[in-house]
């Protein structure tokens, strides 16, 4: 008998250099993590924490202003090793699919692990929901997370650029897109070319 499946909706916030004077060898490091764990499309757990960067531990003014994050908050966060262990524990008993908005989150996690010589042990499927959204609705340009949820007549959860709020918003969009896919595959299906009225779909299936 196979493992039960689950989805991890993940969002990270990263360090960023000042507009001018990028430090030599700079690369983005994770400083905040938000995780939403869902099984059978229902949230069963969430996790939120700051993460201490190792290579460039002092946040720039640009980073603190853009993300509304204080240095002392990051200084008190978990380590990258603790974050890697957390993912390992989440995944050990389940067939896991990680869902992110965009491809940067998992790229930066992999790079951070490589720089810290921490094994990147995640073997499950990885889904970039922004590309799924783009393909499903035929948008020419890649859409921002909160712009996408507003297209559904909804609002993002909490505050944009807070990791757990963005992870929860990603989960909510995932459910909406999956509902639309189910709607379009029904016997009286509508083609994408008809550009379905999203508000009517939401009213019917909410």
Automatic annotation (TrEMBL):
Record carries keyword Hydrolase: yes
**What are the record keywords, sorted?**
Exonuclease, Hydrolase, Nuclease
User: Which Gene3D superfamilies does this UniProt record tie to the protein?
Assistant: Ribonuclease H-like superfamily/Ribonuclease H (3.30.420.10)
The protein's matches in InterPro entries, at most eight in alphabetical order, are given as: 3-5_Exoribonuclease (IPR051274), ERI-1_3'hExo-like (IPR047201), Ribonucl_H (IPR013520), RNaseH-like_sf (IPR012337), RNaseH_sf (IPR036397)
- Name a GO molecular-function annotation: nucleic acid binding
A Pfam family assignment? RNase_T
Protein name, per record = 3'-5' exonuclease KapD
Which organism is the protein's source? Priestia endophytica
Its taxonomic path starts at: Bacteria, Bacillati, Bacillota, Bacilli, Bacillales
